[in-house]
Amino acid sequence: MNCKAVSSKHDPNACFLINRLLAYTILLVWCSTAILAQDPSAPVSVAGVPGIRVTHVLGLEGASSNAKGNLTIQDKAMQFQKGGGAATQVSLDSIQDVFLGEQSKQFGGLPMTLGKAATPFGGGRVISLFSHKKYDTLTVEYLDVNGGLHGAIFQLNKGQGQVIKNELVAKGVHVTEVEVQPKKQSTSEVESENK
Amino acid sequence: MKTSKRVTSVVLSIWIIVTVAPSQLAAQTAAGKSPSDNRPSAAPQWSVQVDKVVTGDVILEPAFRIAIYENLLQELAKGKCFKEVFRSGDRNARDITDLLILKTTVQKYTPGSETRRAVTTVSGATKLKVRSQLYTRDGRLILERVVDGNVRFFGGNLRATHNLARNIAKTIKQSNLPTPTSSIPEQKAEGSPVSTLQAVRSRED
């Protein structure tokens, strides 16, 4: 409002700069909204490959962390295939336990985080309020050929965990459903037991 | 003039935010590197077998328990302070003479929220505190530490497990482990025999 009055007197380029800054901010907010508008909950799989689209968080030998791929339950194995690359298999017999849980995460990764940080007047915090999503987590405990214990964590879209669970139960694998994380802080202390 | 000052201050504040955000992230992950980290250590004499993470009475999601275990294996192998790192139950570890067993017991867990962290900055931290114990094969305790791993600003909740594992590996690396019995020469060793280290360190947040 008074920006025009001041700029016309002193610096004609200042208002132009402010306008550009505002345009960038609007563009940033628009981009964030566009990301928010996407509906990633729809089950998507890599073209031609059956299975459920998952993100391998960590633990599966032969697969890199945070790799996206398809998880399939076959007759005798659980298979994770990253894109069109080599598949990693875990024999169903070697699976000790499977846990199904859920977690809430911010999406967009580092670019989104930087964008939020760069948004002026605390706009990033407002974006954060809406840029989170609930995921199912699938934790698989299995043994390798030497008897060594492995654990693999997969992140699935909400509702997909139940599908995997049903498939695994049908194959005779023991699945434990984890209760939703308590909202209040549960800082229970364990008495120091040395042995 | 007044407007140009305003513009400069806005641009400056944006630049500070963009510059500070990644450095905050780096500071969170680096956890204060000490000069001793770069010091070349002697060839490792022990091998280690990482035991399952015990949660005791603490309610901890299985994903966290597994993430601590897997990150520990990764960080210990990366730290190169042990000859070999074995998984729990690995049959290959049976023949290893100089084997230490790393037991991890969760003492405290404060579940956080990534969204709360992003919105408020000051709340929603995920905190983990564990007791790490190194035992010899015959059940002798040679190292005991209380280590914590938190995630306060950026990153998902599981990042706390990564920070925790890295802190455990760092703590073990910095401690003086006794010489394995098989490495001690036959004549009596000078000074005191292999001592038991029992230094419980509680790190404040």
Compute the gyration radius of chain B: what is it? 21 Å
Which band does the percent of strand residues of chain B land in?
15-25%
Tell me the β content of chain A: 25-35%
Rough outline of chain B = elongated
Secondary-structure arrangement, i.e. CATH architecture of the domain at 42-106 and 133-177 in chain A: Roll
CATH superfamily of the domain at 43-179 in chain B: Lipoprotein like domain
Task: Provide a quick synopsis of the model.
The complex is a heterodimer of chains A (195) and B (205). Chain A is built from five helices and eight strands, in the order ααβββββααββαβ. By secondary structure, chain A is an alpha+beta fold.
Would you kindly provide a written description of the structure presented here, covering whatever features stand out?
The complex is a heterodimer of chains A (195) and B (205). Chain A is an alpha+beta fold. Chain A has a domain at 42-106 and 133-177: Roll (PH-domain like). Helices cover 32% and strands 31% of the residues of chain A. Chain A contains five helices and eight strands; from the N terminus they run H-H-E-E-E-E-E-H-H-E-E-H-E. Chain A has helices at 2-9, 12-37, 109-118, 123-130, 160-170, and strands at 52-58, 67-73, 77-81, 87-91, 95-106, 132-143, 149-157, 175-177. Chain A starts with a helix and ends in an 18-residue tail after the last strand. Chain B has a domain at 43-179: Double Stranded RNA Binding Domain, CATH 3.30.160. Chain B is 34% helix and 21% strand. A five-stranded mixed sheet of chain B has the order 2-1-3-4-5, covered by helices on one side. In chain B, strand 4 and strand 5 (141-151) form a beta hairpin. In chain B, helix 2 runs parallel beside helix 4. Chain B is elongated. The termini of chain B are far apart. At the A-B interface, helix 1, helix 2, strand 5, helix 3 and helix 4 of A face helix 1, helix 2, strand 3 and helix 3 of B.
